[in-house]
Amino acid sequence: MFLPWAPKARMQLSQFFLNHSDLLFPLGAVILGIAILLFAGFLMLHRRRFAQLAMESYSIDSKLLRDLLEDYWKKRFPVEEYAVDILLHPGPRIECIVEMPPLDPEAQEMLFSEVEQELGILFTAQLGYRDKFIVTAIEK
Fold it and tell me: Are the C-beta atoms of 111 and 36 separated by less than 8 Å?
């Protein structure tokens, strides 16, 4: 990076690589290995699993719906805080996007069926909403 401003260092570095050309291949392999490890690490960092539930369940205020979902999700998982969001699709259809802890498949299936029933009851009781809605769960 500073080699254009340091001509003596630039000449010494180029002379070093000319004299020790056998080091270029291992140096390139090490740099390539580090790049692959960084790529794999960043890829694993952003890996998430998604699951969607659809259920039969007007014009609804998204803020009211988001507050209702946040309260429900905080009661469901009181120890950790997970993000929730609401998308209103045309049709009308509601999509609830929630973060959840990683669970084994059996516990996940049980949780999904409970959430499906409880949210359907909650939306019907609080808002009178009986149309379809989707729950998208993202493992945190």
Answer: no
